[in-house]
Amino acid sequence: MKSSQLALATLATAFACNAAMAAPISRTELTMAVAACQSALPVFDGVIRKRPLAVQNEGTSSAFMTCGLEGVFSAQPHSTFIGIGLLNTGTQAVTVNCTLVDGGNGFAAPEYFPVSRVVQPGSTSEISWSPEDPAGFIYPAISCNLAPGTGIQHLARQFMEEIGN
Fold first, then answer.
1. Domains of the chain, first to last
2. Structure pTM?
């Protein structure tokens, strides 16, 4: 067998193995809030501090934060779990209100999923969303109303990824 035929046979075998091994797998991704979140309006910029491990409201009144997550350009449901890590550096329990907004197919029909969570003083908590559609969210973003002394540490998402192709 000539070397070119051997190379072709090897390549064909590799493609056949990849096609046979293609399968969706579940992946988890954690993004620090400093990379994914920003104040929702310029009026909040003066009270939001972007720390390495959290984006935090250091003012005396509530401030809104917006956080964006990656979506899949093909507009196919993708994220099967979304979570946001919260912290409270204050001395009293506070309620943090967050809304996940899924842009939907082409951003034409967004869906809103509000959740509230009480975060105890000096501690952390998490808000999470799992879609009713098992295929997942398409274009997820989150808006949170942060009380003074509260912040967002991270965003997490679980998604299906096709491998082997």
1. 23-163 (2.60.120.260)
2. 0.78
